[in-house]
Structures are given as structure tokens and as C-alpha cells.
Design brief:
2 copies of one chain form a homodimer. With 342 residues, the first copy, chain A, is α/β, with parallel strands linked by helices. Chain A folds into 3 domains: 20-67, Orthogonal Bundle (434 Repressor (Amino-terminal Domain)), CATH 1.10.260.40; 75-174 and 305-332, Response regulator (Rossmann fold, 3-Layer(aba) Sandwich); 176-302, Rossmann fold (3-Layer(aba) Sandwich), CATH 3.40.50. Chain A is built from 12 helices and 12 strands. Mean pLDDT of chain A is 93; it is low at 1-14. Chain A binds a DNA duplex (16 and 16 nucleotides) through residues 13-14, 19-21, 29-36, 39, 43-45, 48, 63-73.
Chain lengths: 342, 342
Amino acid sequence: MAKASGPKKRARRSGGAATVVDVARLAGVAPNTVSRVLNHPEQVAEGTRERINEAIRVTGYTPNLLAAGVRSSRSKLVAAIVPTVSGPMFLETIQALTETLDRNGYQLILGQAGYDGLREDELLSAIIGRRPAGIALIGVVHSAESRRRLLASQIPVVETWDLTTTPIDMVVGFSHEETGAAVCDFLLRKGRKRPAIVTGRDERAKRRALAFAAAAQKQGIEVQIEWTGAPGTLAGGREAAARLLARDTRPDAIFCSSDLIALGVVTEATAHGVSVPYELAVVGFGDLNFSEGVIPPLTTVHLDGSRIGELTGSMLVDRAEGRQPAQKRVDVTFSILERGST
Amino acid sequence: MAKASGPKKRARRSGGAATVVDVARLAGVAPNTVSRVLNHPEQVAEGTRERINEAIRVTGYTPNLLAAGVRSSRSKLVAAIVPTVSGPMFLETIQALTETLDRNGYQLILGQAGYDGLREDELLSAIIGRRPAGIALIGVVHSAESRRRLLASQIPVVETWDLTTTPIDMVVGFSHEETGAAVCDFLLRKGRKRPAIVTGRDERAKRRALAFAAAAQKQGIEVQIEWTGAPGTLAGGREAAARLLARDTRPDAIFCSSDLIALGVVTEATAHGVSVPYELAVVGFGDLNFSEGVIPPLTTVHLDGSRIGELTGSMLVDRAEGRQPAQKRVDVTFSILERGST
DNA sequence: GTGAAAGCGCTAACAC
DNA sequence: GTGTTAGCGCTTTCAC
């Protein structure tokens, strides 16, 4: 029997999907016993369990997770809020997060806040309304109002890609100030005298740029800054580089707020006959998957985006299951990968 | 009054979040009137509405969308299944989809099927269990079993990035066969005699490659194919190019299954002193945001990923709201953007 | 090990 | 316009 799956008996009230009641009737048990097979199979006798599993197969029953969530107030859902999904920066993090959640039986619901953070409040309502077991803020800057709502919601939160001093709850990230200063140091140590910056306008990039400039200032060096849009693009990098190369005092080193921008800077410099790294050193940020393969290979700031995603995922799952996560604050640090462009 | 939001009165049973009952009590109305303000505000007298809205503010009430979903069997949730989120190919589509849904009050839940499509069935259960109003399959190949389950679930489905002849429900895409043949034509017309292919192993890329080869065959030309991993990387492109350039009959044109691979091929060729486009023409696929900016600018197959996402979103929303979408099958076509690399 | 009964938070039907 | 009643599909006591 059971040639095809799909609804067998008469159509049911709403949607026509099979319910615990249908399965229970077919298996000759009470509805809650079906629930038990799904959630605590060890509490059910083997014979009964088999009969019920067979009934599940025959009816094509797929548990209604919404209903389960209402009753148990455990939604098995985690929300991630990103500025936009189409910047390459956070992809590894989202991927690793999804996989980690998945492995633990959780689903990811994705919200785009945009780089301007308008609509942030509406988005938050939509998300909190789903009663997720946790919320991951990935590279998002949030308003005071959002903070308050998140705090009030009691939902576990992980903020990532930064190390706030006043976190809402948990944090996985690194210091953008340290990063900027470290890159400045690195370039000056290599004997560069006229460092410049090409940076997107987003909050974190700004802080790296400022820290870079401050570190240079300490050595009595003024840094030129060129702004470009967020998220960073190759074209934006080329334009900014063109402006920089046209100046009277041409920089001999450029720190870019993303690898894509850095590739643009290298491309433009090459097009102008400026040799990278001899006349111009270029440092990127993000260590995207193409950065090692281009010519010259890009020196860049490496961040373990996957690790951020995994940690975020397991911290949220821990909390969702009532465990205390190993740490509430993780500094994943960064590293400068020296390659051909410097 | 109402200095801060957040729960006011005594803690409530589960989770501590305010419910319709709390709001109703505070506003002196019945619970369903609160529900009405949320869902059909025009049915409620202005005075009552204001009182309720004030009560909502004071209590910090956020509607439990899970409960709403169970009762109304409308979850305001759409699921998207992608092979992996970290390939750049589908990002614009996911972004446009998210935005379109968002504008209509729907949220996106994201599932990664992986390129191998294992775990596909488990993923599908998790997704169908949420009773989403629609499912978008973005660049995913699905098993016969998955097809059956989707069909049985009665949930509106849009398959994208391809034009299946036997769609589950709706389709937004283009023909990979036509694409492959068109690129072949394009290269032969430009006088290339020894075309080759560097392609990832994913299903669609394979079909483009085969169609390319078949078109060449018709003109009596044999095509060399080099395989690389999926998703395509710059490094993979370089390796494949190195192998191709080492052969006795060196190709004078290479069609790549992604722009990232193409950039790798160009890089490797340049490193070998092979001039692009004079000695070697290179065509990419996807028109990623960097492709126009590199040197030489990449000739590539352009696809409007955003449009695919928007269309998918509005088709699903239409169906979710009981409307018939304008079309069930949309061919978004492709175009070959001729730039410096050919 | 299993069943009966209650109830999660919400919304749809039907009164008035 | 608004309240009363019922019930979505599930899980959680609490019996036995």
C-alpha cells in the first residue's frame, strides 16, 4: 500500500494538510502520543512508535511548527539582521551561522536593515513578532530605540563584527580601532611616508580610518582620506584612487575599507602606470576569496567570518536550550596578511 | 505618562511578553478588538482605536505572529532555498526578493541546500513545517522526492534561474542551453577557432557548457572542457587556465561558468604572457559588480538577478493574497555584454 | 507507557 | 462597532 504520499482521507478544514489528529486516528492512539514520538521518542513503546511513524508516512504529515511554537513558546527560529545581503563581507558569517543553526534544528530568518538603518524599527517588530529563540546582529548599527526594544524583548542577542563596550547581551567581534592602528603601524614600519585611506561611509570603516589617521598623527604624519559609497565596489575604488593619484602629494600607501575597493585601487594605479607595490602599497580589508589570486596578491586584513558565524550560532543555541554559553564576549581578533601588494 | 516602554504590570505566564489580553484589559475592550485594530483598523471607531494604540505602546506589546499564523493559517513567511549563500551569483536575487517581500509585510526564511543537495529533504520538512505562504527555489536542483513533497504541500512555488519544461508551479528564469549556444556563436563569429570551456560542476553550468560544445560541433569544431569546483573561484579559474595553456593546441577563446573563474583565467593568462584579448578571448558569466572595472573589462553574460528576485517576490505575494499572478512563467532572457576581454 | 483535558495567543463567526 | 464564543494544531500537565 501507500503508493503515493500526500493527503489520503477527506480534505480537512484549513489548508488540507494532515494534523496530529489524522495521524493519531490512523495509528489508533491519542494525538499527544504522536507529539511524543516527535519530541520525546524514548518515552514511547517501540511498537507504538513504529505504528505512528508508519501513519506519519502514509498521511504525509509534516508537523506545523507554528502551532508547536505557540504552545511550547520555543520557535526553533533564529533571526539575523544584516545591512544588506549583497555585500560580500558577511556572507561567510551568514553561511556558517545557517549551517550551525541547521545542525541544531534551527532555521534562519533574514532581515535586511539597509546601511542607513531606516525601517529598522519596523523590521524589528516583524522579527520579534516571530518570537525567535535568538537574534544575531551582523555588522548592523542600531538605534537607541532598537536597543531598548531588544533588551525589553528578553530574546538572546549576539552582536557581531565589532566589540562594543556596552553590548546588549553577547558579542563576537574584534576592535576596529586596533585594526586601523595596526595597519597604519604596519605601513609606516615598511617605510611608507605618505599613507592615505579610501573608505566606505559605514560606521565601522569610519572608525578604522580614524584610528589609522590618529596613529599616523602620533608620528607627525597627516593622512589623506577619500570617501566612497557603502558597500564598497571596485568602481568606487578606482574613482577614489584616480582622485588620490591626481593630487600634488601623491600617496605611497593606501588602506582600503574593503578588498573590492583595494582591487579597484590597484587596477587604477596600474592603469596610470603606477607600480604596485613599488610606488604604491595597497592594503585591503576582508580577505575575500579572490584576494590571494589577483596580481599582485592583495595584502589585507583577514577576519575569520566563518568562525564569527559559528560562534554566534552556538552561543544562541546554547542560550535557547537554557545553557549558559562558554563566554558572553569573544574577541576573534584580526590578522594582517602580507602579500604582494605591499 | 508612559515614560518607558516595556512590560508594565506583573510578569505574565510564559516569556513575560504582553498579549492581546493585557492590551485589551488596559484599554477596557475585548481582546478581539485589539486584533481588529491590528488587522482591520477601519472596522474600529477612531476613539477606541486610539485608546488601544496607546495601550499597545504602554505595554510594549508585539503581536505573536506564530499564534496569528496558526489561527489564520497565513504565516506571512516566504522561504528561499539556495545552494549556498556565499556564492556571489544569487545575492542580488536574494536581496531583491527580501526587499519585495518586506514591502508587502512578508519575512524571508533562508535555507541552504548545498550544491550536493543532500539534506534537501530534511530542509524541506523544516521549511514546510513553518507553513510558508510561498517557496522560492533559487538556483537549486531538486530531487524527484522533493518535487513530490512540494507539490503535495500545496504551497506556491517559484523556481528560478532556469526555465524548466516541467515546472512544479511557477518559473522565472532563462534558458541555459540558449545561453551556451549564443556564447559559442558569438566567439566563432569573432573569428575564434579553438574555443575552450572552464566550468564548475553544477548542473546549470554543465548544461551551458554542453550546449556550447554542441553548437561548436555543428561547425565541426571540437571544444576542450576543463572542470573546476562549485561555486567557482578565482583560484579555480587560474588552475584550469594553467592546464589549458599547457596543452599542445592552445585555445584562443575560453567561456567560463562564472565571472570569478573568468577573472582567474585572465589573471593566469596575463601571468603567462598570453595577451587577452589578442591571443585569448575570455567570456564570463554573471556580470558581477567588479567585471566592468577590471582590466581588461570582462565580456560576460548578463542576467538581471534583481529582476528575478522582484518577480519571484511579487508572484509569491500575489498567490499568497489569493490573486492570480500576471504570468506563471517568465523568461527574463540574458544578454552578452561585449567588453575588452574579447 | 498512554490517554484525557487544558490551554498557548490569536482571529473568525456570529451575535447584539 | 463591539463583545462572546469557539477553535487553529500543538504540547503539557496529570491521571491511570
